Amino acid sequence: MHDAARDLGRLSRLTAGCAGVAVTVFGTTALLMSLKGAPPDGFLADPAAALVPAGVALLLQALPVHSRSAGRVVHGSAILLTLAAAALCLAAFPRHAAASAATLLAIAVLVLLGQLIRTLVGADRRRRELAGFTDTLFQSMNEAVMVLDANYRLIDVNRRWRELTGHDADEPVRLDPPPVPPASGGDWLLPRVDGGSVPVLASVAPIPDEQGTPRAYVATYVDIADRKRAEETLSEKAAELERGNARLREANTRLETALTFKNDLTAMLTHDVAQPISSIASLAELLHADWADLPDDIRLELATKIDKNTQRLIKMMNDLQLLFRLDMGSITARRVPVPLHEVAAGVAAASTAAPDEVLIEIDDEPAALADRGHVTAVLQNLVTNAVAYGAAPIVISAARHGEQVDLIVQDSGHGIPDELLPNLFGRFMRGSGLGLFIVRHLVEANGGAVRYEHADPHGARLIVTWESAAG
């Protein structure tokens, strides 16, 4: 409609201008021809004289004006000229009634034509103002906008679209085909002329005609680069916070473990260390107080008990030292072939049990590939536990299975209750002190394993599996 009004306005002004010129020329010519007869009342009494101001009035209304003030001046002048033309017709009416009437009718037609011209010119002016406002609004939008026809051919883009895609203000669009976002819209990457892309929130909407058929499409793009950067920063902060929380949880776990260790160690020291110290103190006090009255055999018995309790304390201190080294991860295994019979004989000889209470059923062949000191410490702890909590006889045996060799310590006591088995090799197992915990870690440091079985018909059977050594 705007294009039709524009074209019709131009054609109307051209037609009205030509008509105004023609009427003015015709009126002037008719007036000059009437002067040859030298009318007695003067040439103004001729109705043809009215056509001159009427034609000039129509010509004025056909002139293009660019301001409202100029338009008012032109319109006012045209009205005055039209009134002058009507006055001339009325002045000539007594002498030339028919000609004057015809001239008045012609003037009326010219007035109507001038009014039509004013209407069309006003419509054209409003169209240009609306088009200018629409274009200003289109170019000043913060969103990037691209307008396409029904076949997705480019019609127009706004300033923001050019900025996002890297086009200059007056540069022809160089993206072919135009970057049309998916119909579903959403987050999308808008391509740029430099080969890069911009993250945008994109959408495309059809513009239907009266039948509902799309006659054009409008695609909009909102720059979300700042939002994406904020999301990435937030994700990084969240990941950093999660890492910090993980470190905090790990530290809390270590603190809880350390607290548990401290509490267990305190409880063990309170019971296991206090008992031999109390026994040593009591026996030493008895010896000191009644030394002169005690016979030699009683003195020897009391001194022997003091020595056993002292050795028990020394072993506890050695176990604690080894425990701290295990917690620090400073235990390393120097694995060499270790003859199991030789180690078993040494441990049995050093045991507090009677010689006939510890039996060795190992020939000279089995050897483990392990740290000799670790093998000795493992066997010492197993035998010590068997002596303390089991019953004689205690049998140390070995059996080879392919590339592995089992070292077995079995007693003849009541065995270990089933409810204690899940935590049997824990750090502070009730009834076994640190011994089995140290056994497990030393065996694992050498690539082995330790397990418990019920002995047949009764008793405890602890089996340590080592890697077998040749010879």
Automatic annotation (TrEMBL):
Superkingdom field: Bacteria
Catalytic activity: ATP + protein L-histidine = ADP + protein N-phospho-L-histidine
Domain PAC: 184-236
Regions annotated as coiled coil: 227-258
Keyword Lipid biosynthesis recorded: no
Gene3D superfamilies: 1.10.287.130, Histidine kinase-like ATPase, C-terminal domain, PAS domain
Protein name: Sensor-like histidine kinase SenX3
Organism this protein belongs to: Paractinoplanes abujensis
